[in-house]
Specification:
Blueprint (H helix, E strand, L loop, with lengths): L1 E7 L2 E6 L11 E9 L4 H5 L9 E2 L4 E8 L11 E4 L9 H4 L19 E4 L2 H4 E4 L8 H6 L3 H11 L7 E5 L3 H12 L4 E5 L3 H9 L4 E3 L3 H10 L6 E6 L4 H10 E9 L9 H6 L3 E4 L4 H13 L11 E4 L3 H9 L6 E4 L1
Parallel strand pairs: 9-10, 9-12, 10-11, 12-13, 13-14, 15-16
Antiparallel strand pairs: 1-2, 1-4, 3-5, 3-7, 3-16, 5-6, 6-8
Helix pairs in contact: 5-6, 5-11, 8-9
Bound molecules: zinc ion.
């Protein structure tokens, strides 16, 4: 089969790889219907995170089950499935608390930007969709494998709820999904911080009530102006850079909450946050926990997170999919074998 392999910063190749096989009885092999490039894949593409050796890449997928191991009971060959970026068994004591991202037996994919993929812990990771989904729903189903669940996690972590004011830092696919999540969770004011017309449009479509194009001090002042001069109840940090984290701190009100889902690069002024009674929570999303509810919302056409995909390419053009996102010509690239 063929799949994407990152060789060095800026160098992602579509090349022949061994067909995946069942290794553990809890595995499934899934034939990819759609995959995509994640903002977090760009850390390596941009040379910010190291690439020690050529490595298969990608962790978002939906597809059709081809084979399952002897111990798999909830999915079977022919099922259309979506799986989260962080495989979990969904039965260990940590998973049973809902913290599936921190599964005691957590595993990784060996590159999901590929024609086929081995899914560890198939029962705990994959969710089968009844029948065959309508073709136009596939981007939204795929978005559940990471960005929508990650945006949801930001909102849940920051205690977004009815009547609250929310500011979202970051207008990538996760930030936009965090806007959508906040609206779904009943937030009254949802401020998307974005400087790009195309992303502002998606944010508005997802229900953002305000757009703030300023950054740094001016951005924080604009958020304060929209929140009785005190800052937002909930700030969702969806980038991970130090400047984004400091932006979040500058936008939250005393006693408010920050949800962090950007892969952290840089520090947080924890002592300042202490004196302002600001809550901090976040991390990798508990995808498997959120998946059933969010899949219902997608299948009932209540939410359409697939709007974050504004570029679709054949999997063989994966190199261009990375370049387009790196150069901000695309919010997020969808790939089909
Ligand atoms: Zn577990």
């Amino acid at each position: 089969m063929f799949g994407a392999v990152i060789h060095a910063p800026g160098d992602v190749r579509y090349e022949e790889r061994p067909d995946p096989t069942i290794v553990e009885p809890t595995d499934a092999i899934v034939r990819t219907v759609a995959a995509c490039v994640c903002g977090s894949d760009l850390w390596r593409y941009r040379g910010i995170a190291p690439v020690a050796k050529p490595t298969p890449i990608g962790h978002e997928l939906c597809g059709v089950v081809e084979t399952v191991g002897d111990a798999v009971t909830t999915v079977k060959p022919g099922d259309f499935v979506v799986g989260g970026f962080n495989p979990s068994d969904n039965v260990c004591p940590v998973c049973r608390k809902g913290a599936t991202a921190n599964c005691l037996h957590g595993a990784h994919y060996d590159g999901a930007q590929a024609e086929r993929i081995r899914v560890p812990w198939a029962d705990g990771t994959l969710l089968a969709i009844p029948g065959t989904p309508d073709a136009d729903l596939i981007p939204s189903i795929l978005a559940l494998s990471d960005v929508m669940c990650t945006g949801w996690h930001a909102a849940v972590s920051a205690q977004v709820g009815p009547g609250k004011s929310v500011a979202v830092v970051g207008d990538g696919a996760v930030g936009l999904c965090a806007v959508l999540a906040s609206v779904q969770l009943g937030a009254h004011t949802v401020i998307a911080m974005s400087r790009h017309d195309d992303r502002q449009r998606v944010a508005r479509e997802f229900g953002a009530t305000h757009i703030v194009a300023d950054r740094d001090e001016a951005g924080a002042e604009a958020v304060h102006a929209l929140t009785d001069g005190i800052g937002a109840d909930c700030v969702l940090e969806c980038v991970g850079t130090e400047s984004a984290r400091l932006q979040a701190v500058a936008c939250v009100r005393p006693g408010g909450d920050i949800g962090l889902v950007g892969v952290p690069h840089g520090d947080l002024p924890v002592n300042d946050l202490f004196w302002h009674n600001v809550g901090i929570k976040g991390g990798p999303a508990h995808v498997r926990t959120y998946l059933p509810h969010l899949l219902d919302l997608v299948l009932s056409r209540t939410i359409n997170p697939g709007l974050v995909f504004d570029l679709e390419l054949p999997l063989s053009e994966v190199a261009e999919a990375y370049a387009a996102m790196d150069e901000r010509r695309a919010i997020k690239s969808l790939l089909r074998p």
